[in-house]
Amino acid sequence: MVRLDKFLADASVGTRSEVKKYLKSKRISVNGLLSVRPELKIDPDTDRVCMDGKPVNYTRFLYYLFHKPAGCVTARTDALDRTVLDYFPEELRGRLSPVGRLDKDTEGFLLLTNDGVLNHRLTSPSYHLKKTYFAELDQPVPADAVWTFAQGVDIGDDRPTLPAELCILPSMEKDGGPVYSAELTITEGRYHQVKRMFQAIGLRVTYLKRISMGSLTLGQLPKGEYRLLTENEMERLKQECETRGLLP
Predict the structure, then answer these.
(1) Domain 63-125+216-243 has CATH 3.30.70.580
(2) Which of 102, 132, 152, 166 has the smallest number of CB atoms closer than 10 Å to its CB?
(3) How many other C-beta atoms are found inside a 10 Å radius of the C-beta of residue 155?
(4) SS3 32
(5) Is residue 248 very low, low, confident or very high in pLDDT (cuts 50, 70, 90)?
(6) Three-class SS of residue 98?
(7) Do the bridges between strand 28-30 and strand 49-51 make them parallel or antiparallel, or are there none, so unpaired?
């Protein structure tokens, strides 16, 4: 059961304050009866809620892909910095939580959802889906780093990293000088893991962007924007979780 005003806000009818105005104006009905009580408890699965006579569509679970810019923190609230939720409208901020985290200066692929079970499974320390990062580095990546990363790397923790897949990319010219880059796929989510793995072989990451998780990719989604996952994408993600034993 959920409060009527929360239901309406979660259904993107409006903010809590706007919803209360709609209720006072007798624009909302529940099972055919006009309601003005924001505290009324309803069952989203069985009760029929309408605004101006039209049914209010409510989706219990939301799954958003967000292209995180550098400079914001992966948190719901923060006293000092802008958060990833600040890019979403007010009616969604109270519903969504980030799946895992990206460092403040890291850009790219970030999932946000209100599906607590899936969020917990995807961020379980025991095992994660594959996550691929594009990294720019201050020096050329040695060819033997592919083998080194495939064996697992000592980054100063109590155990080496799990085997990772490294793809060294051709160098490019940028701002009048060479840029060295690589794509790294890991299956963990340790603190600053990608940066620490490159640091372990004497390289410094100058730019980092997550480009995929499992079979889902960031694609051409502009920086600072978000979109709902498609049904096909959600099915693929859940199937991958089940295959890897992440879902019951």
Answers:
(1) yes
(2) 152
(3) 19
(4) coil
(5) low
(6) strand
(7) antiparallel
> Which amino acid is located at 33 in the chain?
L
Radius of gyration in angstroms for the set of CA atoms belonging to the chain, rounded to a whole number: 22
Dist. CA 186–CA 164, nearest whole Å? 5
- Confirm or reject CATH 3.40.50.2000 for domain 131-213, answering yes or no: no
Q: How far is CA 33 from the centre of its chain?
A: 39
Please check whether residue 182 is in contact with residue 137, taking contact to mean a CB–CB distance below 8 angstroms: yes
What is the rounded CA–CA span in Å between residue 105 and residue 172? Answer: 22
Tell me the pLDDT tens digit for each residue of 117-130.
888 878 876 657 89
CA diameter of the chain:
71
Which of 53, 63, 56 is CA-nearest to residue 11?
A: 56
**103 counts as catalytic:** yes
* C-alpha 133: how far from chain center: 14
**Distance between CA atoms of residues 73 and 86, nearest Å:** 10
pLDDT at site 57:
84
pLDDT band at 154 (very low <50, low <70, confident <90, very high): very high
Show me where the domains of the chain are located: 2-55, 63-125+216-243, 131-213
Q: Whole-prediction pTM value?
A: 0.82
Q: Which residue of the set 86, 103, 115, 158 is catalytic? A: 103
In terms of phi and psi (left: phi > 0; alpha: psi -120 to 50; beta: otherwise), the region of 117 is alpha
Are both 63-125+216-243 and 131-213 of the same fold? yes
The pLDDT, as a whole number, for residue 92 is: 87
Cα distance between residue 63 and residue 230, in whole Å: 9
108: which strand partners?
68, 210
